[in-house]
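README: folding subset

This subset contains proteins for which both the sequence and a predicted structure token string are available. Records are stored as plain text. Below is the entry for DUF3592 domain-containing protein (177 residues), shown exactly as it appears on disk.
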Amino acid sequence: MRGRIFNHSRKKGRFIFLSLGIIFMGTGYFIAYHIGLPLIKEAKASTGWPTTTGVIQNSKVKVHRSNDSNSSTYSAEVVYRYQVEQNEFQSETVWFGGDISTSNRSMAQETVKKYPAKKQVTVYYNPNEPATAVLEPGVFTMTYFYYIFGWLFLGVGILSTGIPLFRTLFRIIVGNR
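--- output ---
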């Protein structure tokens, strides 16, 4: 009886481990290939986009406080307006990947200092979608954040599903000798 309960618990544990692994793989794939990779491609393409003049409307450091701890993260909120072919647009993208909050307040402060309210700026806009714009074109270290983060989830998922599957396959091969 005890062996049967133990065996049932092991099977249930493997099922949960495999299920979590599949969830991690799906989440990782989505983050890496539906958020991260398009962001990298857009950042690379932005270096060839046409430019227009814009004006910073608002620039401030946003503080995000955690409800369950005393920690805070910071991000720069820079809002600018620009015009393309008589159409006015507003954007908040300073660089692709720059919308991530970090515990480093000085990073957000530097961005806000660089782009104060009422400053005239050069805006790079997507010629096929003028509502998409950026102040600093190209790929930066933070641009890779979602892609790498997605791959971390994907890796955990692969390990979580691969190890139990490999063990089962190993038992089948070794057990048949």
